[in-house]
Write a structure and sequence with these properties.
- With 229 residues, the protein is of the alpha+beta class.
- The chain has one domain: Pseudouridine synthase, CATH 3.30.2350.10.
- It is 14% helix and 31% strand.
- The strands form two sheets. Strands 1, 2, 3, 4, 5, 6, 9, 10, 11 and 12 form a ten-stranded mixed beta sheet that branches. The chain has a two-stranded antiparallel sheet with strand order 7-8.
- The chain is globular and about 50 Å long.
- The termini are far apart.
- InterPro entries: PsdUridine_synth_cat_dom_sf (IPR020103), PsdUridine_synth_RluA-like_CS (IPR006224), PsdUridine_synth_RluC/D (IPR006225), PsdUridine_synth_RsuA/RluA (IPR006145), RluA_PseudoU_synthase (IPR050188).
- Belongs to the pseudouridine synthase RluA family.
- Its EC number is 5.4.99.-.
Length: 229
């Protein structure tokens, strides 16, 4: 199936929402529909880093969120902080919690998906499961509430592969609502935007080494989770 046509229309409201800032890090709440970094085409230049650099010119991207995903994103203010934070992501010291509304009733209350992923090159930027050549990818999930039509799940990615949560939920037969790349006709039309939100991120501060926790409320549904501990 061919990818749907990509029309970039980044949101202007909110334009940029800061959650925290000091001399070493900047934390924002990224809106759905905004690229983390610029695309190649001139019309795809608007992005998180472009907007943040207009305020903090030295800030650099440490990790990315999919364009359609909203939520907590951390940037480094200097090279030392960038190295420190990058190492935390690479060695899986960070902790992350996402929430997603998915199609259908998820049978198991909790579980784990271990399916290696690789770029689906003819259909890029799509990813696909490939048990022979894919990179290891692991996601833990827990059902928060469900009906026959949809389920709200908390997602805890152990690895950080591109589109990991979207492909892993699809592999369970429960595509994320509003997913234009991986959803069925019905699940795509069930929401105007991808129903995936990076609600919490925990890291060690690159200088003080203090354990920091950043959270944002869910922008969809009426569920507000307990603090991420």
């Amino acid at each position: 199936m061919a990818n749907p046509a990509f029309i970039y229309n980044p949101p202007l409201h909110p334009y940029l929402e800061f959650l925290y800032q000091d001399e070493d890090i900047v934390v924002i709440n990224k809106p759905s529909g905004l690229l983390s970094v610029p695309g190649k085409a001139p019309e795809h230049r608007d992005s998180v880093i472009k907007r943040v650099n207009a305020v903090f010119p030295t800030a650099t991207v440490v990790h990315r969120l999919d364009m359609a995903t909203s939520g907590v994103m951390i940037l480094a203010m200097n090279k030392a902080a960038h190295r420190h934070l990058s190492r935390q992501f690479e060695t899986r010291q960070t902790r992350k919690r996402y929430f997603a509304r998915v199609w259908g009733e998820v049978e198991k209350e909790s579980g784990e998906v271990n399916l290696p992923l690789i770029c689906d090159w003819p259909n890029r930027p799509k990813q696909k499961v490939d048990v022979d050549s894919g990179k290891p990818a692991q996601t833990r999930y827990q059902v928060v509430k469900k009906t026959q039509q949809e389920s709200l799940v908390a997602l805890y990615p152990v690895t950080g592969r591109s589109h990991q949560l979207r492909v892993h939920m699809l592999s369970l037969g429960h595509p994320i609502l509003g997913d234009r790349l991986y959803g069925t006709d019905e699940s795509r039309l069930a929401a105007e935007r991808l129903q995936l939100h990076a609600s919490a991120l925990q890291v060690f501060h690159p200088v003080s080494n203090q354990w920091l926790s950043f959270e944002t409320p869910l922008p969809f549904g009426n569920f507000q989770p307990e603090p991420f501990l």
